[in-house]
Amino acid sequence: SSSSSSSRRCLCSSFFDAAAADVGSITTTTSSSSSSDSDFDADDHVLTTRSYSSAPSTSTNNNNTVVAPRRARRQRRIGRRRFSAIISRATQTTPIHPTDEPVDYTSLGNTATRQLQVQPQKTTSTTTKSKTTKVKTSKNGNGHGSTKNKFLQNKTKQRSVPFFVMLPLDAVTNDNKLANPHALQAGARALKASGVHGVTVDLWWGIVERDEPRKYNFSAYLALAKLMEAEGLELSVALSFHTCGCNVGDSCSIPLPRWVEEACEKDPDLMYTDENGHRSGEYLSLGADLVPALGGRTPVECYADLANAFRRAFRKYLGRVITEVSVGLGPAGELRYPSYPEPLWTFPGVGAFQCYDTYMVANLRAAAYTVGKPEWRHGGPHDGGGYNARPEETGFFDETYGRYDTDYGRFFTAWYAQALVAHADRVVKAVHSSFAPEDGVTLSIKVPGVHWWAGTRARAAETTAGLHASGRPVNDGIYEDIISMCQRTGTRFIFTCLEMSDDEQPCHAGCAPEALLRRVTRAAWTRNVSIGAENALPRYDPIAHERMVARMYGECLGATEPPEGWRLSNFTFLRMSEAMFRTENWKRFSSFVRQAAEPPKAEALKSADDLADESGADSGSLKQQQELAESAYAGWVSSPFV
Fold first, then answer.
1. pTM over 0.85
2. Which of 92, 133, 145, 570 gives 20 to 30 Å between its CA and that of 183?
């Protein structure tokens, strides 16, 4: 109705007032350049404006010869047009608009917070007929911070999708040692022989900065980088600021740093808290992002300091061995709230809101007063159910009478989700400032495929995870806000559940993984954002492999004919293990890698046996791969990781 749409506009306007104020200084600087000559400073990465003096009667050129006034005026006009073109092209690809900037709710009602200074974004080179402005770019042509997304280059230059494999969660032990060097080396050789591009590893905050603040020990990870370099594999590093052991598939226990746990004992509100007072120790609450509670530092500053130390320690590997760094933003390294932790949650429960720590409540209170509804300041919905409730068992998510679609429901879910987007924006910008374009490293973030109840109107599980806000259009919601943030910062968007199919899910859980994947890939394509993918669960069956290959090259867009040359930026397989190197699994996996090396043909993908028998397949190479896989399997059995 018109009244509800009007209230929604007022609500959104209030939410983004703070962002509009932040953007004002940027837009003022940009607009002022249109009336003055501007130069681009490639070293400082800033636009400097130089005002024009009044037109003189005469002018001189570089040879100190007098130039006629008419000619001087003509040269000034040409110069102004050229500089205006440079400024326009440097800014138009990532327009800044108040409604695109997430609101920093942590700056509302919290006098103890400190704002991080946002680093200026790098700009790609712009060429005109008479002048080229040069700016440093990364060695691999896919550096972060560029306003022109390098994914366009991938569409023409990159034929196959780079294939990565996750290493075991405990590839590095709590004692900061490689868990099983022999098995890692044997596995790396087998992967390289099969055609795998590289491997992914979690760099755990609780291991490298375990005992004291700012005392970093990367020795085991440096040994791993050296090992992968020797085997000819790239290494993708995930900066993991969370714990291990509370999520599906977690096979080990890795805590936060000891000094962080001590800070949480002194101030338990640094941890996410649900309605019943249960505190999650998986990841620090985003409400405390800017609270200097960690030895005088804020959590965001701790994340940035670790990224700085990482860059210094691995400088010689950046751009060659290490080409991607993933920024952990929540539980399991994913951008979400810990709304479905094990063992409190079982599939397909709706999960629980995580907004009851002191800092989150303070931010909610400030937001409620901002929109003139102080009665909404106390906390989340009292009728949201529990971790294992179904939507129809709750008063908030019920499809017919649920409060999710009321003014309060729209306010709360928008605040809850936008706080998560604002958290991602803060942390990504802080980590971005730690790297330089010449490092040749692409930064990425991971967003989970919370697919259960995604086929319902309330989208309960996504809402408690912070990935859906009631009242937002289907194709203009929180996922699109996250992708827009990636566009502004030059960050790659990684999405899970590439292998999932609707017909494989239980019909009573409202699952819609296919529609979810189609939505995010289309949003990334239209915004020109680089997108990669992972499988959510290990799969060694040909049906899942065939489905993933098709989606790597455009089937996930849902179009009959995908755009020419479209493909994922990379794919990561979950994960290297003893099961991978078993004879039958390895045979299927290696054929999967070969299938993923090029776009699928019109006919159905061939089985592993068919591929092995083709004339194009080198039987000697296949035999070598199998021998290497057997060696890796033997290493796993003799000295398992867990």
1. no
2. 570
